[in-house]
Amino acid sequence: MTEIATTFKRLKERISSVIVGQEMVIDQLLVAILAEGHVLLEGVPGTAKTLLVKTLASLIGTEFGRVQLTPDMLPSDILGTSIYDLNTKTFTLKKGPIFTSLLLADEINRTPPKTQSALLEAMEEKQVTLDGRTQALPDLFMVVATQNPVEFEGTYPLPEAQLDRFMLKVMIGYPEVEAEKQMLKNWQEGLYRKKSLAVEPCVNTDEILKARKDLESVKVDESILNYLMEIVQKSRNLSDLQLGASPRAALSWLAAGKAHAAIEGKDFVTPDNIKFVAEPVLRHRLMLTAEAELDGVTVSQVIANLLRQVPVPR
Length: 314
Hints:
- This protein folds into two domains: 8-211, P-loop containing nucleotide triphosphate hydrolases (Rossmann fold); 218-309, Magnesium chelatase subunit I, C-Terminal domain (Helicase, Ruva Protein, domain 3).
- With 314 residues, it is an alpha/beta fold.
- β6 and β7 (133-136) form a beta hairpin.
- The relative contact order is 0.16.
- It is globular and about 70 Å long.
- It is built from 15 helices and eleven strands.
- Strands 2-5-8-1-9 form a five-stranded parallel β-sheet. Strands 3-4 form a two-stranded antiparallel ribbon. Strands 6-7 form a two-stranded antiparallel sheet.
């Protein structure tokens, strides 16, 4: 696990030199990369969501694709389509931007459900079916979708079944005062100009894929499994929730917990690793009842209450 910890520490340090004041966000994003999960990144405009993903792709030295989702987009704009060649009198496949290692789906809630659903097969099975033919996606394939929480006009909220495909929902907010001051100093020094943002890779794709393989050796004690399952089961019976954690949520939670343990350099999962990823794993999967919403209950409060109710294994 030392090798994984060293690799991801190096990656975090380089990202943090560009994206200041977002340590928790970076930690959660790195967990998702190691655990082979997709991320829903939510934050108000101007909080460097796009810059964060582009910087990450550059530091890994991998293919990067970006789709700016709009209401008039079609699934073929993401997946690609077959084009008829008059010279050869045959159809040739013109691949869409989804055929990349790291895909940034910008403002995913700006496009209709039909176009949103174009991502589902790719996210679940790392493949795309076009004209009856299955096309494999790169081993490193990962989707980071962004959305703006303050604009509701002209948006299409993601259905629960699609939200469940994202391993983590990461919330990116405003940086602290000192971090934002450092950001201003960085801008003064020209760090955020286009030429200076061409960062050199500090890890490669093979290192990430090897780390994912090594993650299988992280041990999970029976007591940790029981702890995790008790929380998941309890979420399905809370009076404040009409929808609790799904079986896929439990799998994502365990994978994310193992990844966090490995990044810390441990070869075993502790309750603290489970707690660290609890909110990003659950916040987009739990659905409050109408009564709870009227009472001002939040999903974050429900998650904190869940963790308090279940005793931590010793």
